[in-house]
Amino acid sequence: MARAWSLKARPQGMPKHTDFAMIDLDQSTLGAGEVRIANRWLSVDPYMRGRMNDVKSYVPPFALGEAMQGGAVGEVVESNDDGIKVGDMVLHMAGWRDEAVVPAAQVQKLPALDVPPQAFLGQLGMPGMTGYFGLLQVAEAKAGDTVFVSAAAGAVGSTVVQVAKAKGMTVIGSAGGAEKCAWVKSLGADAVIDYKSDVPVVKALGEAAHAVGSGGIDVYFDNVGGEHLDAALAHANMHARFAVCGMIDVYNSGAATQLKYLARLIGNRVQIHGFIVSDYMNRAEEFYKDMGGMLAAGTLKRQETVHEGLETMPDAFLGLFSGGNTGKMLVKV
Amino acid sequence: MARAWSLKARPQGMPKHTDFAMIDLDQSTLGAGEVRIANRWLSVDPYMRGRMNDVKSYVPPFALGEAMQGGAVGEVVESNDDGIKVGDMVLHMAGWRDEAVVPAAQVQKLPALDVPPQAFLGQLGMPGMTGYFGLLQVAEAKAGDTVFVSAAAGAVGSTVVQVAKAKGMTVIGSAGGAEKCAWVKSLGADAVIDYKSDVPVVKALGEAAHAVGSGGIDVYFDNVGGEHLDAALAHANMHARFAVCGMIDVYNSGAATQLKYLARLIGNRVQIHGFIVSDYMNRAEEFYKDMGGMLAAGTLKRQETVHEGLETMPDAFLGLFSGGNTGKMLVKV
Questions:
Q1: Is residue B194 part of a domain?
Q2: Residue A71 sits in a domain of what CATH number?
Q3: pLDDT surpassing 90 at residue B199
Q4: Residues 249..268 of A with a Cβ closer than 8 Å to B: which?
Q5: Which residues of A touch B275 (CB under 8 A)?
Q6: Does the pLDDT at position A56 exceed 80?
Q7: Pairing with B123, which of A39, B85, B166, B187 sits 20 to 30 Å away (CA)?
Q8: Orientation angle between helical segments A155-166 and A178-186, nearest 10 degrees
């Protein structure tokens, strides 16, 4: 029988293992137009923390006691739809489970790009699109700009670093620890800040901006909020643009963000734009085309942190908040 | 002999009277191309606090021991320039003094609008342009929008309220105390919040947005930062636009701004834009034309808080930070 993770209790602050419970799924019969998918790869993403709260947001909260949702890639093993065949590899949102039964209209065949299937949960999927459109559309970054990106070793940030370099920008990345910093540097970043070091981010960013010769930043891609956002405000150049897609620093604590340099946005005419990648889903073709070209040219590097087995799903999810991943965090079923 | 206020010491936190000193100005001879102006009205504005710090900003710091600068309106009493005649009323930046000697190129004859001359330091001057372009250009406010404006009884805010109403918007204003709130209401605001009451701004704004039938705000015009900005984030509608021209809450304290609702900008795709009115100075004609039409139609109300005599200039300036003014704060020489 298929199994899925459910939310047993709504977490207070940092989620605990006891907030999750495995449940059985009775989905022995396949309805008209439905497909059965053996999930191979499951995604955990920071935004899922928001769905664990019972508040109105841009995605509805997880229902207690029911199977959770999230990005997944799997192989179709049974189909009641003419367009989807047994053996097709598909992307869908019925994750957190080993087997999914969903309407065929809710699955997408994997695009024809020369990458392993799980890449469509990371660099070629939602995180990659977040980085791509956030950088190029929301922040309107262009060749010659100095771009600062936080969580630069993560699934979104590592895409930002590489797309920015491919487009002729100067890049300063922030990551936690020497190993991640070295990886971000290997992606092409011109300077890297280790936010886990003793140097405050605001100081480290100032030094990095000096080192790369710009003296400040034109673009900030914000995955984390908090101290990084404040540092970006402190070193923003005139007419800097900030694209904000995540604030992992406050997802669990709910603490107020303290911004010492906020007033700088006036004199420097800074623009701060919040965004959600789903606003750009209708431009996926453009994304696949451009990223496909970079892949073919060997420009893109990709890394994954993989947990094995459905049982490890809560571990993988919790690891997102302690910097447990380099590149995309995945669970292999 | 002409006299001027100088900065004697750079203020720490809230400026004190002892930070200012009156000095004599030796300007008995008039150079080529210069004009001598008997100042009639002097402006004090919150942005001047920034010039008292010795830091790089969008306007250079005041030099210690020298005459300070600021908006002023006066009558030309001597002229070495063919374009400016004795008797002309002019607008210029050599304020904080009773008599100014400046190059004719740095003065502007008052536009031909039927208002008293001091209006060109307020509603028809820099504060009015800040409100006008901030609302219509920076925040892209349009008919039907619900607009929240802080410091709504101030020179900038009272312009925002009236322009917004004239353009078919719903307006929620915030001001301190019953008297100012009543005045803001009389300007046409649909709802008014008294931020000095016991009700937190975030709660009061939620109730006001409910009362005016919008449930949230589409535009926030920020003069103050801090608690008001956080409340605006808490009640921002989808795709809300914030125009930020001032953060008087932190000008003196330099304290970090605490934002509890900052992460809301992601899901609601909020745009926050800092701006400086000088970016729009080349569009002054457009402003005078539109505002002139509203004046002629009797749409615009104006109020001033007037201190008498050059000696009162520091009092007037300090009053800005304790809510001492309704409408534009001025010193009559």
A1: yes
A2: 3.90.180.10
A3: yes
A4: 250-251, 254, 256-260, 262-268
A5: 266, 269
A6: no
A7: B85
A8: 30
